[in-house]
Write a structure and sequence with these properties.
alpha/beta, Helix Hairpins, five-stranded antiparallel β-sheet, 2 helices
């Protein structure tokens, strides 16, 4: 018996009829994740005289089949809903129509670039982009694979990120990765990775933060410019460049603890400035009331006393915030020192050439490289950096 199939997934939201509202060209309509047991399509018997050869789904998301099983794949099954035959998902994932089968994939696939055609992508699962992420767009996913490049985009993934091309000019927002990052090259970008960063060819003038290691994979791979921070070690073929190009490397300290400490120290400075301003104003009021007693009107004296009470109340509140921020800073400092003390294996390994001009910190030891060398391993020993 022939059936007409109405698909219930992948439909774009209707456009707002209000022409006065600005069109958001970055809004995405491509992400359609379903859960197990969700209805994906409805099958309605079609009288034989109205049947026709199978057709490709049109804008109305309808197609005609000759048998119910034509739309079934191992990831979906038939069921009944109010006496009507429906197709339901057997697992969580992203549905698609392949030939005439409804298939659930664990990974969402975008065939092409992330641009105005796709809009921003906020994917609740794994994402494969068969193209590049263009400038100005946002992409979020669990695990992310990009077969092209990433250019000046806002990218965040909770798991691994694989970029077959390069990552360029991602400086407005840091590229954030919750596990490991693999890419061909980096240029003028900010990268924050919780575990390891693997780079095939080069890192140029970029800010790198890795909770574990930074690895430039080939002997000819080069890291030059910017600041590279790794909780453990850095491995590179070539580090730095001629003419002492400013390059900073910090190893053996968790960069994310250091970032949190820096943020809290900035907050502490603001609170200290606010406390000083409040104390200064209270002192001014006290001095004025003492020296001008008898020369100030009752109304003016009453107003100053009210202001002083309000300032003293705010002073108490800000002082408590200051104590909390100070305690938090001390806690981060303690965590950083404990991390350094238990980190025995962090090294800088340069397999080909180390140029002069490198500012190097390993745990609590600092130095500036003044001479070029080849095939070098540096580590911290007894508070100093040894070659």
């Amino acid at each position: 018996m022939p059936y007409i199939v109405t698909l219930l997934f992948g439909k774009e939201p209707e456009n707002n009829p209000d022409s006065r509202e600005a069109v958001d060209h970055y809004r995405s309509s491509l992400v359609s994740q379903v859960t197990a047991g969700q209805v994906l399509a409805r099958l309605q018997p079609l009288p034989p005289e109205e049947s026709s050869p199978p057709v490709k789904p049109d804008a109305a998301d309808n197609l005609i089949i000759q048998n119910q099983t034509e739309v079934i794949s191992p990831t979906v099954e038939l069921s009944e809903d109010d006496g009507q035959v429906v197709v339901i998902s057997k697992e969580k994932g992203f549905p698609s129509l392949e030939s005439q089968q409804i298939v659930i994939h664990k990974t969402l696939t975008i065939d092409g670039d992330i641009n105005f055609r796709t809009g921003n992508i906020d994917c609740p699962g794994d994402l494969l982009i068969k193209g590049s992420i263009m400038s100005g767009f946002k992409v979020r996913a669990e695990n992310l694979t990009v077969t092209g490049s990433i250019e000046n985009a806002e990218v965040e993934c909770h798991g691994n990120l694989v970029c077959a091309g390069g990552i360029v000019a991602c400086h407005d927002y840091p590229l954030v990765c919750g596990a490991n990052l693999w890419c061909k090259y980096l240029e003028n970008s900010r990268i924050e990775v919780k575990n390891n960063i693997f780079i095939a060819k080069s890192s140029l003038h970029s800010s790198l933060k890795a909770g574990n290691n930074i690895v430039l994979c080939h002997s000819s791979a080069v890291l030059v410019g910017g600041k590279s921070e790794a909780g453990n070690s850095l491995y590179s073929g070539i580090l730095g460049a001629k003419w002492a190009t400013p390059t900073e490397v910090v190893l053996g300290c968790d960069p994310f603890l250091a970032k949190n400490l820096d943020n809290h120290c900035q907050q502490l400075e603001k609170l200290e400035t606010e406390l000083d301003d409040l104390k200064e104003r209270v002192d001014q009021i006290n001095i004025f009331l003492q020296h001008e007693e008898g020369q100030t009107t009752r109304h003016e004296a009453h107003r100053l006393q009210e202001e002083r009470e309000l300032l003293e109340s705010k002073l108490s509140y800000v002082n408590q915030k200051h104590k909390t921020a100070l305690s938090k800073c001390d806690e981060f400092k303690k965590q950083i020192e404990e991390f350094k003390e238990t980190n025995f294996n962090c090294i800088l390994h340069v397999s080909e050439h180390l140029f002069s001009g490198i500012r190097l910190t390993i745990k609590s030891a600092e130095t500036r490289v003044t001479e070029e060398s080849s095939s070098t391993i540096l580590r911290e020993q007894l508070g100093e950096i040894s070659w």
